[in-house]
């Protein structure tokens, strides 16, 4: 796939997720508890759609191409480049959505996270290299499915339900398996393959990992404290955000 085609796919993905975001309020009307934050309701459902697409696509890709993990630099079977490009378009759309609808002090962490992902995935799309590495990173989105479901249940005021409790358990389990373990493996791969990766690309990758790992460990602590060790006052405060 040529560079122009990759950029076209990124732009098409941005537009498609933007249209989905605009139409989601009709497809999934916000409950009364989410009426005062309707943009966030649409935003979370849009993010959920991307997580299902990219996380499921990554699992399917490794199932269909089991040898993909053996060459994370030069190999990119059909569909792999497209899925990474689609994800770049999504992260751009989500970045713009938060920038337009949320105060900077509330969204700076996610904006920073998205900036790192856009740069790293963008390099893979433009260079047609490191597709396997980017595909490994998309496994993180499997956990994001349950992170987004958690936010939806919170906004729907279903925090005291069995569904929320079950999702909290699955969320933490997949967080360890698909998020922390995946990021740790990616960091290890970069360190072991330092001599095979150009200095500029290696630096971008290591800086990205150095940013992502602490952010995700902090988020894990917040989730653990919020869902398993919080007081009734904490529950009420989280609902009011």
Please explain how this structure is put together.
By secondary structure, the protein is an all-alpha fold. It has nine helices and no strands. It has helices at about 5-25, 40-65, 80-100, 105-125, 130-140, 140-155, 160-190, 200-230, 230-240. Helix 1 packs across helix 3. The longest helix has about 30 residues, at about 160-190. The mean pLDDT is about 90.
List its traits:
241 residues, mainly alpha, 0% strand
Task: Note poorly predicted spans.
Answer: none
Anisotropy-based shape: globular
Find the count of extended strands (DSSP E, 2+ residues): 0
Proportion of residues in extended strands: under 5%
CA-atom Rg in angstroms: 18 Å
Distance between the termini: 44 Å
Quick overview:
The protein is mostly helical. Helix content is 79%, strand content 0%.
Give the arrangement of secondary structure elements.
Elements: H1 3-27, H2 38-64, H3 80-101, H4 104-127, H5 131-138, H6 140-155, H7 162-192, H8 199-228, H9 232-239
Helix pairs in contact: 1-2, 1-3, 2-3, 2-6, 3-4, 3-5, 4-8, 6-7, 7-8
